[in-house]
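User: Predict the structure for this protein chain, please.
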Amino acid sequence: MKEHPAAPHDADATVDAVDMTLLRLLAQDARLSVSALAEQGAISRASAYARLGRLQKSGVIEGFTVRVDPTKTGAGFGAIILLTGGQLASGELRTQLTDMPEVAYAAFVTGASDAIVLVRVRDMDALRDLIFLKLQKLPGIRGSHTLIVMEEVIPPRMVLP
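Assistant: Here is the predicted structure, written as structure tokens:
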């Protein structure tokens, strides 16, 4: 096993090739022990521990989570909703979207729409209620355009270069 030195302890240190290997391994299984991470990353346990700590401290790793199949938790109906008019009250809109459990992803965008929202709900009735009773009543929203997700070709994943 070729030994790689621990990366600098500077919180602003850049991510190197060894760090990227560790991130890819954790993306596949965030439950990997430090020992397993070190073994699979071909580095010492001490180096893996130091690098993992630095990646967390610097904010590269924001947390560890699980992937849940929404079809098995009653939220298998997905839609992408384009909202217009929301940038006038973007601070309040951000807070209200964050507080909606149906919202899996939201972003302010350029173009004909002001925001894009990915929602997951139980069925079409729940989607209708979400759009008419919640989203279209948000501050500044003038309209929406809904795209029903027919099939997820690539499910949400971490993107690493």
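The first strand starts at residue 77 and ends at 84.
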